[in-house]
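Dear U.,

Please find below the material for section 3 of the report. The protein was modelled together with S-adenosylmethionine; I have listed the sequence and SMILES used, followed by the predicted complex structure.
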Amino acid sequence: MIVGRWFIEERWDLGKLVTFIPNKKLPIYSWFYFKEGFSRDFVHMMLDIFKTSKDSKIIDPFVGSGTTLLACKERGIDCVGVDIAPLAVFVSQTKTADYDIEKLKENARKLFQEKFEKPDLSQVSQYVKKFFAKPSLEDIIFFRERIRMIEDPAVKNFFTLALMNAAMKVSYAYKDGAVLKVVEKPVPPFRKFFKRIIKKMIKDLKKMSFKPCSIEVYLGDARKMDFLEDEEFDVVVTSPPYLNKIEYTKVYRIEYELFFEKIKIDPVRSYIGLNPKNVVDYFPELNLPEAAKAYFHDMKIVLEEIWRVLRVGGRVAMVVAGGVFPDRVVDSDILLAELAEDLGFRVDRIIGVNKRVATTKRVIKIGEARESILLLTKL
Ligand SMILES: C[S@@+](CC[C@H](N)C(=O)[O-])C[C@H]1O[C@@H](n2cnc3c(N)ncnc32)[C@H](O)[C@@H]1O
């Protein structure tokens, strides 16, 4: 398909690979359900296309649930992940840590030997309380406090993630797009359920085999990765937040309130394209909606940072999607390709992998929002 001066390869068969769905069945990859994530197989496909080896160094500046890191760990390739969301950093660190299985088992035994004492729920907000039956919430807070006393940080994170999963499974929370709804349902006894999740996670660790390498995760902003050296990386595999899509912090409010009480999330810093100051409109001829102008303003800065940390000849795979607005669809793949080219990247391929008909008022077709993989080379 030709759009303007660009050739878009049509590989609708690859659509599933850029979703989290294939990860749902995989050990460790599935430890946190991240709707906005891509799959292990996508990362492996990109690592193959880019002919990476054990000597390569990879970065994912929007690491999300850590899929890029974990795939690199399977191959023994050094990888760095960056994310602005503390929850994403926590999940990525926990999924990629090295564990002593006997130590985990020992801690699990101790945890379940503890005698239950009713915890104080006064610090839990009314908002969070709506999503739980009282006995479940009491169990969750009881275990949370016990887990906080574990000294080894990796072990502590492991049990916190298990608890978070168990908590969300027994909650009445239903993630409906970017909104959390209360949907009451019968819930299983918490302890039994929590125990089962821990057992499964330990089993997962035995199922996977990893090769030695360095995996680092930073809490940081892809627009300003000043903790990373120039030309440090060979390959970028990533997917930034999509234009005009999902507000990440809101759907994870329960996890944040229960497990990261001290962190106050600053929404302005949490996304790409939300209220940057002095927005430069890179496409004045298109008369883009304000949100799109702000998005491309920020993404240009991200591309500059990617340029800086990549070595000459370094490669980029970036999954992006078109933004749907009331009057039109904005082709993010093409506009990002234009920005990348202006910076000196070569646009090697634009591969369309998903398309969704966009309508206004559910009747009038206004266009097709395309999800694509953008492949670039730093010249
Ligand atoms: C589409 S998700 C990435 C999903 C990831 N590929 C995966 O498979 O899990 C985008 C991620 O970017 C993060 N993010 C948003 N703004 C950011 C910024 N300015 N710097 C770094 N990360 C950011 C979000 O917290 C989210 O985790």
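For the text of the report, you could mention the following: Residues 34, 36-38, 61-62, 64-65, 67, 82-85, 88, 221-223, 239-241, 248, 271-272 surround S-adenosylmethionine (CB under 6 Å).

Regards,
Y.
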